[in-house]
């Protein structure tokens, strides 16, 4: 993976630096007792440094054969140290011929397989180093090198694993963002073409009547289904909050058209639930007074620090004073289920109606609370076949 590239480059730099350090020690000790063999070991280390750097730079080559060979070469250079150093092998502070170069395969195993494989490689190399020290009778046996190898293998392996996981999450996020952009593009194209055609067929079919009305009804059903399919996916919603669009789109049907903004309508979860319940009560009134096949339209938008949901129908309308008479008679459907519920949220309800003109219920809820943010964005437009535009509404308290 690309995220591992910097790790492999860092290991390559470590190999070169360790090789230079080992060569400097060899020159300082004048090749020890066997200078020819010692410089031959340095030559092997140089060749393998070049080969390993090239091999690890290719992702396809980072496999078990390369890792095992890398570890074996390091062990071979380590175990030949007594024959090069001779009697000086057991002197205090004397390092093996490859010096710190033997840590390179440990780091490679750690980057490839995480902290567990890093610990395994460290154990193998540390065992070889400790065997040399015990063999030469060095007392006390220093374990500093073994401890450092284990620390390097475990820590580097853990960091490499975290980096790999972060890279995978980033890749998934990029793919999800690309998919969402494509979905939004398709939704815009569909909204600008297919949905408008279906809306036109539905409206013209209802106007013409007869067989055309049935065709219009089928077009309306397909429009409702297609609107739900291309509705924007809910964005990340804060804990304790809800996207009102999701609750409103649940009411979509061949008889009910729902239009919502492209941006989320975030409200505290209890506020969103109560607002949706008030909309449901308004739709129940449409079915009760206009019939089960009556058409209704739901519009939702956010502006001026409030979310406004409008429910419209083409029913017979409400006679002036009828709502007050119903409340006085104890029928509190509108007074409690709609007005009372929204009033408890600090919102307002307004009716625009007239005999034979249908009814429009406008519900406004303030964007209040810590989980509410400033939302804006135009609604997706008037629903297909709506009898009136918002410019022609009449509001009565």
UniProtKB/TrEMBL annotation:
Residue span(s) of domain DUF5931: 1-166
Region listing for Disordered, in residue ranges: 363-397
Histidine kinase/HSP90-like ATPase domain residues: 278-368
Regions that span the bilayer: 7-24, 36-57, 64-84, 141-163
Record key words, sorted: Kinase, Membrane, Transferase, Transmembrane, Transmembrane helix, Two-component regulatory system
Keyword Membrane on entry: yes
A GO molecular-function descriptor: protein dimerization activity
Keyword Kinase on entry: yes
Gene Ontology CC, one term: membrane
Pfam families in the cross-refs: DUF5931, HATPase_c, HisKA_3
Ranges annotated as biased composition (Low complexity): 366-390
The Signal transduction histidine kinase subgroup 3 dimerisation and phosphoacceptor domain, residue ranges: 182-203
PANTHER family: NITRATE/NITRITE SENSOR PROTEIN NARX-RELATED (PTHR24421), OXYGEN SENSOR HISTIDINE KINASE NREB (PTHR24421:SF61)
UniProt protein name: Signal transduction histidine kinase
Organism: Nonomuraea jabiensis
């Amino acid at each position: 993976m690309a995220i591992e590239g910097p790790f492999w480059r860092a290991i390559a730099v470590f190999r070169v630096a360790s090789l230079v350090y080992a060569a400097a020690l060899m020159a300082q000790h004048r090749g020890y007792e066997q200078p020819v063999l010692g410089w031959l070991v340095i030559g092997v280390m140089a060749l393998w440094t070049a080969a390993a750097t090239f091999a690890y730079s290719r992702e396809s080559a980072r496999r078990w054969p390369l890792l095992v060979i890398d570890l074996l070469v390091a062990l071979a250079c380590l175990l030949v140290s007594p024959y090069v150093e001779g009697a000086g092998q057991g002197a205090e502070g004397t390092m093996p011929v490859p010096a710190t170069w033997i840590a390179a395969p440990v780091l490679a195993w750690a980057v490839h397989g995480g902290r567990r494989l890093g610990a395994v490689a460290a154990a193998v190399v540390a065992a070889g180093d400790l065997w040399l020290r015990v063999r030469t009778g060095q007392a006390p046996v220093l374990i500093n090198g073994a401890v450092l190898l284990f620390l390097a293998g475990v820590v580097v392996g853990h960091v490499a694993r975290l980096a790999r996981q972060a890279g995978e999450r980033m890749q998934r996020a990029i793919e999800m963002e690309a998919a969402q952009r494509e979905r939004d593009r398709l939704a815009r194209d569909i909204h600008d073409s297919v949905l408008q055609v279906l809306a036109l067929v539905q409206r013209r079919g209802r106007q013409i009547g007869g067989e055309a009305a049935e065709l219009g009804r089928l077009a309306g059903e397909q429009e409702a289904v297609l609107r739900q399919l291309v509705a924007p996916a809910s964005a990340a919603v804060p804990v304790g909050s809800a996207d009102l669009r999701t609750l409103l789109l649940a009411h979509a049907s061949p008889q009910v058209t729902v239009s919502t903004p492209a941006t989320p309508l975030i409200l505290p979860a209890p506020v969103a639930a109560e607002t949706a319940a008030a909309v449901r009560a308004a739709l129940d009134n449409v079915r009760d007074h206009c019939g089960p096949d009556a058409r209704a339209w739901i519009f939702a938008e956010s502006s001026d620090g409030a979310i406004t949901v409008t429910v419209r129908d083409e029913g017979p309308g409400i006679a002036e004073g009828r709502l007050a008479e119903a409340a006085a008679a104890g029928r509190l459907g509108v007074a409690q289920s709609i007005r009372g519920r929204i009033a408890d949220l600090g919102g307002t309800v307004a009716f625009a109606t007239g005999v034979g003109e249908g009814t429009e219920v406008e519900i406004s809820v303030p964007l209040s609370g810590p989980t509410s943010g400033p939302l804006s964005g135009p609604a997706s437009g008037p629903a297909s076949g709506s009898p009136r535009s918002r410019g022609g509404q009449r509001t009565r308290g």
